[in-house]
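tool=predict chain=A
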Amino acid sequence: MPAIDNLLRAFERGDLESMDAVTTDDFDLRIEHYRGDDVDVSWQRCLGRAEFHAVLQRLASEVFEGGTRILSLDTQELGNGWTLSSFRQQFLYPVRNREVIGQTWILAHESDGRIDYFREIATPVENVLA
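tool=predict ok
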């Protein structure tokens, strides 16, 4: 299983120890948003383990306070450690105070089973219909 899949499954469980195990000390992460809600997302980037933990803490308190559930995860191995993942998740989104589904694409690089590069493009979330 690609390391990115392990990272996302650990994120779903809230398992920081497992997330650390599949990322490098100089982990480079950025989450970009395409036409999302009008909120500041400039903090959704990090370089290094300490900054990664800070981003995770804010995500947990500001975006995923009720956790998240993976609806689908499909990862293509591109060669030379590169992967491209299509990732759908459902979560309670505090900005809208309702359940939403988010679709993202993640380009990642791994070496020796650990991710050192992560770029996520998040599209606007969709409200879950009652």
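Residues 81 and 110 are 5 Å apart (CA to CA). The mean pLDDT is 94.
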